[in-house]
Amino acid sequence: MTERFQGSFTQQEPIPGEGIAAALEVLRHGRLHRYNVAAGELSETALLEQEFAQATGARYALAVASGGYALGCALRAVGVGPGDKVLTNAFTLAPVPGAIASVGATPVFVGVTERLVIDLDDLGERIADSGARVLMLSHMRGHICDMDRLMSLCDAAGVTVIEDCAHTMGAAWNAVPSGRHGAVGCYSTQTYKHMNSGEGGFLVTDDEEIAARAVILSGSYMLYERHLAAPGPEVFERVKYHTPNVSGRMDNLRAAILRPQLRALDAQVDRWNGLYRTLEAGLRDCPGLTLVDRDPRERFVGSSFQALMLDWPASALEALLARCAARGVELKWFGAPEPVAFTSRYDSWRYAPCAPMAATDRILAGLVDLRLPLTFSHDDCAQIARIIRAEVSAVHQQGG
Ligand SMILES: *Cc1c(COP(=O)(O)O)cnc(C)c1O
């Protein structure tokens, strides 16, 4: 009898009871807008920002409407404008080049290695030949490159780094939280990320002018003094007449459900990594399948899992996906010629011209990906591994 996995790859956990109670409180008093406060009241959004700054060790934090908004806001706040070039990963998701395009700039793609991180040699070459002065670094699927090497490369070349931490909230490199190496760190609290408010995001920085510009950009009007994790009014005086309002605020309802999730984040990361290690153990030494090694300096968040079927023909990968899907295991494939659901690749973003990237294409052509929601048990992960293992062997033996 062949086993079939019955779970759902898209089912997240419920919002914690404390969050539901806090949300009801906001609904009862009706002050959902972050600047709508009673006398002496601190808004849920302002408190959340203060707590997020503490959690990441950043001087300033801003909560916004989405992760994609945080990315675009960060680009504007560091001064990127129409016609500029912005370096970014070829292996990422659509909101990243989309944020670059949203400010009229052009993405310059940098290749990916077998460890699924940005290729630092390629980055050095792209910096030199593009002249770009900003890197939007996507820690795609939670794989963190050697950040010490990346930062010394970028610092030496005068390249400002904005980190896309949509998949690394709660992660760290060499004990420094992800998002705290570059000038700005951006996070998402969209349902499929590490905290769930449906939509939402954050931006953190230690730079007072970037912080003040981001607050005004996000739609503070002249109410910026109601922030608890923003610079003093003298900094806003310097930027307020020159910074446009591009509204993208967070609201108190979302902030209310995020505050208890932030307190639980570390424990959730441990749970994710437990599931990840179970799945990984079940796929060790599977002929045809290459696991992605994790660097010991990386404190990652195993909220998704990737494996490489290097140099398989496309038809074999298609067969593998179909066979796994028939047994309830939804794999995503970054080698598909057409964008599907959330998955697309650098050459499907045709607004951003690029030359073919052979080394990157080889990785993407073999890359399969799956989500690990916390609603899965260890038994679920062991079963998913058995199914993938059996189907990889079956296809591989047929000469795949
Ligand atoms: C989800 C995601 C974002 C953007 O987040 P939204 O909150 O959905 O706008 C950015 N980068 C990556 C890699 C993502 O997966």
From TrEMBL:
Residue numbers bearing the N6-(pyridoxal phosphate)lysine modification: 193
Record's keyword terms, sorted: Pyridoxal phosphate
InterPro entries: DegT/StrS_aminotransferase (IPR000653), PyrdxlP-dep_Trfase (IPR015424), PyrdxlP-dep_Trfase_major (IPR015421), PyrdxlP-dep_Trfase_small (IPR015422)
Catalytic residues of the enzyme: 193
Domain of life: Bacteria
Lipid biosynthesis is among the record's keywords: no
Recorded family membership: Belongs to the DegT/DnrJ/EryC1 family.
UniProt-recorded name of the protein: Putative PLP-dependent enzyme involved in cell wall biogenesis
